[in-house]
Design a protein that fits this description.
- The complex is a heterodimer.
- By secondary structure, chain A is mainly beta.
- Helices cover about 0% and strands about 55% of the residues of chain A.
- The N and C termini of chain A lie far apart (about 40 Å).
- By secondary structure, chain B is mainly β.
- Helix content of chain B is about 0%, strand content about 50%.
- Chain B is globular.
- Chains A and B meet through strand 5 and strand 10 of A and strand 5, strand 6 and strand 10 of B.
Chain lengths: ~110, ~110
């Protein structure tokens, strides 16, 4: 099926440590989107990746799209308490395809 | 503030009842999406509309229906409610079907 998997499910880090979450698809992706949801909040769009091997940076966040376009990663350098939340990847193969969100990685940052 | 509005914010009702959730997309956005998020669960895609037409369907129960009106606002109707329907329902909008989505604050539905 058109599954999107994310690992890990949960991650607890000490403030200042790095964090990485991985998104894996069973099928080739045309694009991948990343969203962040703070506790009690709604998902907020972070970025969209389209090209094979693409790497994009937003301050301490680095997003990568695999060469085979079947996986993606989000890396946070030197985590801060403001990074707490659940990070979701999402994909839709075409504009007529249902949107599939990964199960998310919940990040806790210990001050 | 994403620009997407959802009403009501909270809804408490009883099993067997019917409710309507409303969503107004960002100005200029033609696509509207509905999602269900149960406690500590991920986002389950329900349905997507584009400029008034149904574009994609997810795991939406037959008891649930939705529509997008000519002014582009959307409503999600949930009927014969069950305890398991208690969840946070998000609406999102985007310019087009594959663009970034802007989520509303959600409607928290509690079925007693």
């Amino acid at each position: 099926g058109q599954q999107v998997m994310q690992i890990p499910q949960y991650q607890h880090v000490q403030e200042g440590e790095d964090f990485t979450t991985y998104c894996n698809s069973s099928t080739t992706l045309s694009n991948i989107q990343w969203y962040k949801q703070r506790p009690g909040g709604h998902p907020v769009f972070l970025i969209q990746l389209v090209k094979s091997g693409e790497v994009k940076k937003q301050k301490r966040l680095t997003f990568q799209f695999g060469e085979a376009k079947k996986n993606s990663s989000l890396h946070i350098t030197a985590t801060q308490t403001t990074d707490v939340g659940t990070y979701f990847c999402a994909r839709a193969k075409t504009s007529y395809d249902k949107v599939i969100f990964g199960p998310g990685t919940s990040l806790s940052v210990i001050p | 503030d994403s620009g997407v509005t959802q009403t009501p914010k909270h809804l408490i009702t009883a099993t067997g009842q019917r409710v309507t959730l409303r969503c107004s997309p960002r100005s200029g956005d033609l696509s509207v999406y509905w999602y269900q998020q149960s406690l500590d669960q991920g986002l389950q895609f329900l349905i997507q509309y584009y400029n008034g037409e149904e574009r994609a369907k997810g795991n939406i129960l037959e008891r649930f229906s939705a529509q997008q009106f000519p002014d582009l606002h959307s409503e999600l109707n949930l009927s014969s409610l069950e305890l398991g329907d208690s969840a946070l329902y998000f609406c999102a909008s985007s310019v087009g079907p594959r663009n970034e989505q802007f989520f509303g604050p959600g409607t928290r539905l509690t079925v007693l």
